[in-house]
Amino acid sequence: MTAPTGSPEPVRPQIRLVVRANRFLCISVAAIGLPSTFVLIMFDPGGINSTADDLTRAAGFASFNLAFWCLVLLFRRWYFTFDARNRAVTASGRWKARGTYPSRRFDRIEYSVYDARIYEVRADGKRRRLPVRRWLADQQDWRALVDLLLAAKQPAPTSRSPQAPAAKALRTAPLDPRGPALPPDGAGP
């Protein structure tokens, strides 16, 4: 069934936030890492099969992996994405696979203002940190993500964790530091 041609389509809000990698950090790591890779792999400390030779080559390969990973983030143009409607993060957390969080055993995603990290949380309260780092993300995109996560204080309702609206309202009701409100004069005991 199609909509009538004269009716306007509803405007959908932005539901997907793309968080880019920090360009300056990635370029710096690649610019330092690739030349140091060449130096560390080609450096010969003098002995054949020496431990120092093995360690410098291992450091060279580690430097190459870090520089290559930063170049991939630069050319891919995204670090991870956040779907605001489903409150899900999609990141390339595993080899040749995209990780979608919260995982199967977890219910929701939370942002911790204490340590500036994103966690997936189970129904019993256990948390696991997501494989996304604040220092590697673009600062402006990270702030937009934090604003989205903190704006929706309540987790998105899922079929796994139904909550009664009255209990949710009681949990979020602000407490008055002066105590309960008293009825006006003549309205009660």
Automatic annotation (TrEMBL):
Keywords: Membrane, Transmembrane, Transmembrane helix. Residues 155-189 are annotated as: Disordered. The chain crosses the membrane at residues 24-43, 55-75. It comes from the Bacteria. This is Uncharacterized protein. It comes from Glycomyces algeriensis. The lineage of its organism: Bacteria, Bacillati, Actinomycetota, Actinomycetes, Glycomycetales.
